[in-house]
Amino acid sequence: MLPPVFISIHKQKAIVGNDLTGKVSTSVSIGSGLTYSGIRTLNDLSETCIGVTVGNNPVADDNNKLSFSVTPINGYELAINKIEFIATRIGTDGGYIDVSWAGNKIAEKLRPTRNNATPQYTIHIA
Question: Which of 14, 42, 58, 72 has the CB geometry, 3.0–4.6 Å to 68, for a possible disulfide?
C-alpha cells in the first residue's frame, strides 16, 4: 500500500487585492481524483493539503484539476498580468503542476519544493 501523496495549496482560496473587493467573486474546486486532507503548518505558513486519490497520473486532466475562479461582477472586466501561488510537496518526490488561464496552458511541469527542504515551499509566478 502506498502512502497518500500531498500537494499543499496555501490558504485554499483565490486571493485578490483590496482594490478588487466587492468587484469580483472567487471560488475553489477540485477534481474527483483529489481530496482535501487537512491543514499543515510549515514554519510560519499554513497550507491546505490536497491528497491525490489516483496515484501516478502523468497527464493533467479534469480528475486532478484544482481550479481557482475569479469572476468580475457586471460592469467590470479583469486584466490579469500575473498568477502567483505558494505550493509544497509533502511526503513525495513526485508531482508537477501545470498552470492554465482561461483554458490556455501558461506554465507546465512546475515542481514545488519538498517539505524537507529549506525553505519548505516554493513561490510560483506564471
Answer: 14
